[in-house]
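Quick one, tokens below:
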């Protein structure tokens, strides 16, 4: 099959969407399919044999100057103007404007592909591909961003901040509408499937769960783990990742024992995380790493005695599965899809209530004091990761879903009767135009 894989941003190493694009495209190519990735900035890192077609935005959120000013000569068309205007009114424009741009690009390329795979863009432009270009579309929805919105609003400290957040998450209305019209949706967990059905009103009969994979480079360490080291991953310095809970727990642990915390994230300069570290007086024992390669990430994960995933919600949690593959014993939040990933409590991980500082502190302390149990947990975690989380298996299941969607699209275009429970055709309303 000839596959167009669409992703409005594909940040490598950190963030589930970029990891998904890289590994899925590689394994689909290994199965004999042809994959071309269409992405805005930041662009993905792709393996040999996978083509990249850049669909450049204004890159308004690039480091080190996010929310940057755009000079008049940088505007190329009205889509650029729309993108800048939405940012200036505190909205997040990238999914919407990427959808318009990639539709324009694909108009001259429709004959090059058999199927289009939308990686959680869920924009009006994506919804128009089937009707205008005659190409079947399949969508991956990692989790509904409605959870991020609720957590961020709950953490907001002023009405002004809450108003700004409501503007920022304005794209969710569009994503919900597009998801409800989607022909077929892939999700990484049963938890995400339930939440998408509830928050976006999508028919569960049009959804399919395919758990994500772990790359083979994630292996147990060859060197001894650093005594007292705790490692945590956060794809974004955001309240939903639960880093504030972990920092408060770490501050309590630090009063009783020698520990260090290594956070794999890029903190927002002067943001909540940096402020809390200063308030707690733990700066000497907390360090950050970011922008590292997979090989370096494996060394970091394998260097810790304990991995911690304190998130308030996760649609799958790739870091959890990757830490398991590194045989790192875990303390994780009992929320979202994390229990599905780690399995029964106590075998591969200890689970705690999300946001509970006291429980997190006590659980980490008990595990630090029990090296034999850490070793058992690490071995069980490694075995579970190897058994359940394979990118090759993801690609095989996804390719089968492509075939199903192509067949259903062909039936729908010839107006033949739809079988019960089959994916239904998507369309675009006049309002989308």
């Amino acid at each position: 099959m000839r596959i167009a894989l669409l992703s409005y941003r594909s940040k490598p190493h950190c963030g589930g969407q970029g990891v998904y694009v890289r590994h899925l495209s590689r394994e689909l190519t290994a199965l004999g399919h042809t994959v071309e990735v269409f992405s805005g900035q930041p662009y993905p890192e792709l393996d040999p044999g996978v083509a990249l077609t850049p669909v450049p935005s204004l890159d308004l959120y690039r480091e080190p100057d996010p929310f940057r000013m755009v000079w008049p000569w940088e505007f190329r068309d009205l889509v650029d103007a729309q993108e800048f205007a939405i940012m200036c009114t505190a909205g997040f424009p990238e999914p919407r404007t990427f959808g318009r741009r990639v539709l324009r690009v694909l108009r001259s390329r429709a004959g090059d592909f058999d199927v289009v795979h939308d990686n959680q863009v869920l924009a009006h432009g994506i919804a128009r591909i089937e009707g205008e270009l005659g190409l079947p579309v399949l969508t991956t929805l990692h989790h509904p961003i409605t959870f991020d919105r609720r957590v961020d609003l709950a953490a907001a400290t002023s009405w002004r901040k809450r108003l700004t957040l409501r503007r920022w998450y304005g794209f969710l209305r569009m994503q919900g509408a597009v998801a409800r019209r989607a022909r077929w949706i892939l999700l990484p967990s049963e938890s995400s499937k339930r939440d998408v059905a509830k928050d976006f009103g999508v028919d569960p009969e049009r959804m399919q769960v395919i758990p994500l994979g772990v790359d083979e480079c994630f292996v147990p360490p060859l060197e001894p783990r650093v005594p007292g080291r705790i490692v945590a991953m956060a794809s974004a310095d955001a309240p939903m990742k639960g880093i504030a809970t972990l920092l408060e727990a770490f501050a309590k642990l630090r009063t009783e024992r020698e520990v260090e915390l290594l956070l794999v994230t890029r903190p927002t300069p002067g943001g909540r995380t940096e402020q809390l570290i200063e308030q707690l007086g733990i700066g000497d024992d907390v360090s950050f790493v970011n922008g590292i390669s997979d090989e370096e990430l494996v060394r970091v994960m394998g260097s810790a005695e304990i991995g911690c995933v304190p998130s308030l919600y996760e649609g799958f949690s790739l870091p959890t599965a990757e830490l398991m593959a590194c045989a790192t014993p875990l303390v994780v939040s009992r929320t979202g899809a994390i229990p599905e990933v780690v399995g029964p409590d106590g075998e591969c991980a200890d689970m705690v209530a999300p946001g509970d500082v006291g429980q997190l502190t006590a659980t980490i302390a008990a595990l630090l004091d029990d090296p034999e149990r850490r070793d058992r947990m690490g071995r069980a975690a490694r075995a579970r990761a190897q058994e359940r989380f394979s990118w090759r298996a993801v690609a095989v299941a996804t390719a089968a879903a492509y075939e199903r969607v192509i067949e259903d699209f062909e039936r729908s275009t010839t107006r033949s009767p739809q079988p019960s429970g089959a994916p239904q055709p998507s369309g675009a309303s006049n309002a989308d135009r």
